[in-house]
């Protein structure tokens, strides 16, 4: 627990770091590493600084206690950092919200 491996055939695992743990053995992504700090939606837990950081522009996080932000799909971005929902991702060219095309 506390490690993951995303590459098939590897014999060693990556450490989650920052005192993060995994719910189960056999974790395959960093996203399966869980934080002990419950950061608010729109934030992620930074394992280097041990702090909750706002998700940067172009990303969002809708859940509590995550260690990553989700990238906006395709050619979309957000107007601000700390976004909490995919609906805040907007088309870069026309400024319309995702789904309003």
From TrEMBL:
Gene3D superfamilies, sorted: Tumor Necrosis Factor Receptor, subunit A, domain 2
GO CC entries: cell surface; extracellular space
A GO biological process held by the record: signal transduction
Chain ranges passing through the membrane: none
Annotated Pfam families: Ephrin_rec_like
Domain Tyrosine-protein kinase ephrin type A/B receptor-like: 2-33, 42-89
Domain of life where this protein originates: Eukaryota
Alphabetical list of PANTHER family matching this protein: SIGNAL PEPTIDE, CUB AND EGF-LIKE DOMAIN-CONTAINING, SIGNAL PEPTIDE, CUB AND EGF-LIKE DOMAIN-CONTAINING PROTEIN 2
Name recorded for this polypeptide: Signal peptide, CUB domain, EGF-like 2
The organism of origin for this protein: Nothobranchius rachovii
Classification lineage: Eukaryota, Metazoa, Chordata, Craniata, Vertebrata
Gene name linked to the record: SCUBE2
């Amino acid at each position: 627990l506390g490690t993951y491996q995303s590459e098939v055939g590897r014999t060693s695992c990556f450490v989650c770091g920052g005192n993060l743990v995994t719910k189960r053995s056999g974790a395959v992504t960093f996203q399966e590493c869980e934080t002990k700090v419950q950061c608010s939606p729109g934030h992620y837990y930074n394992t280097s600084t041990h702090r909750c950081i706002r998700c940067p522009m172009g990303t969002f996080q809708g859940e509590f206690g995550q260690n990553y932000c989700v990238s906006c799909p395709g050619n979309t971005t957000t107007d601000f950092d700390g976004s909490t929902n995919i609906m805040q991702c907007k088309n870069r060219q026309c400024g319309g919200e995702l789904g309003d095309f």
